Amino acid sequence: MSTREELLEELLLEEVAVTQNEIVLYNDDVNTFDHVIETLMSVCDHTAEQAEQCSIIVHYKGKCTVKTGVYDDLKPRCSMLLDAGLNAEIV
């Protein structure tokens, strides 16, 4: 096995080891579409189109993954969503 193949193999193993978590947003009967969209744009760095699509998915499907990443990045974002009155959790 060449050195290049060994390095590529090690790199692939490191990428697999990084755990990706998700913030899942749940539907409720309280928040307006506008509030959800604005909150997703400010907290999760969504574009207007992304935030609108997520809000529609949440409305019709009951939940939607709105952000993925490492836990340390997601924790404060999830807290901000909760503080804004939305129902969300990290899974």
Overall number of structural domains: 1
SSE string, helices as H and strands as E:
HEHHEHE
Content-based structural category: alpha+beta
Question: CATH top level?
Answer: Alpha Beta
**Total count of helical runs of at least 4 residues:** 4
Mean residue pLDDT: 90
Topology (SSEs and partners):
Layout: H1 3-17, E1 21-26, H2 33-43, H3 48-61, E2 63-69, H4 71-83, E3 87-90
Antiparallel strand pairs: 1-2, 1-3
Helix pairs in contact: 2-3
Domain Adaptor protein ClpS core: 22-83
GO molecular function: peptidase activity
Pfam family, one: ClpS
Please provide a written account of the structure.
This protein has helices at 3-17, 33-43, 48-61, 71-83, and strands at residues 21-26, 63-69, 87-90. The protein is of the alpha+beta class and 91 residues long. The radius of gyration is 17 Å and the shape is elongated. The protein starts with a helix and ends with a strand. The relative contact order is 0.23. Keywords: Hydrolase, Protease. InterPro entries: ClpS_core, Ribosomal_bL12_C/ClpS-like. One of its GO terms (molecular function) is peptidase activity.
